[in-house]
Amino acid sequence: MNKKTIMVILVAITAAVTYYLYEEPLSLEKRAVVEAELASQPDKYPATPVWWADGGVLAIGMLPRESGEKRNDSAKEICNILWKHDVNKTTVEVYDILQIQQTQDIDGQQLIGTADCRRVAP
Questions:
Q1: What is the pTM of this model?
Q2: The dihedral of CA 63, 67, 68, 69: what is its sign?
């Protein structure tokens, strides 16, 4: 093989890998639909998403349980809402809303629940 052929093959492989690894960010429309559904249940989800990183991580504030038990089950319920709206590449993090209200900052807050909602789209 000559150098030109090898270069063409390398460029083609690079393009294929880039295409395969590229993940489109979650659309604003899907975010808005999920946020509206969460906001429609204020007793369950008292705060709209605190932070949403390109659709990859959804951080939400909830009241901690008096027993101190984690809210992983609540995070998994949010997975069902995400899946209902075809959002399949997101993890959910639940933070103590009372702490967030006191400091107005999510950095350094205690994680009180998590769920991995990533799945292959049906």
A1: 0.73
A2: negative
What is the DSSP track for 39-64?
HT-TTT--S--SEEETTTEEEEEEPP
CB 54 within 8 A of CB 25: yes
**What are the pLDDT digits (tens) for 69-105?**
898 999 999 999 999 999 988 999 998 888 877 776 6
Residues 6+ apart with CB under 8 A from 49: 34, 35, 38, 58, 59, 60
Averaged over 43-67, what is the pLDDT?
82
Query: How far is the first Cα of the chain from the last one, in angstroms, to the nearest whole number?
Result: 43
pLDDT score of 33: 92
Strand order in the sheet with 57-62: 51-53, 57-62, 91-96, 111-116
Q: Residue ranges per domain, the chain?
A: 25-116
Token readout for 36 is: 């509206």
Tokens found for residue 115:
């769920």
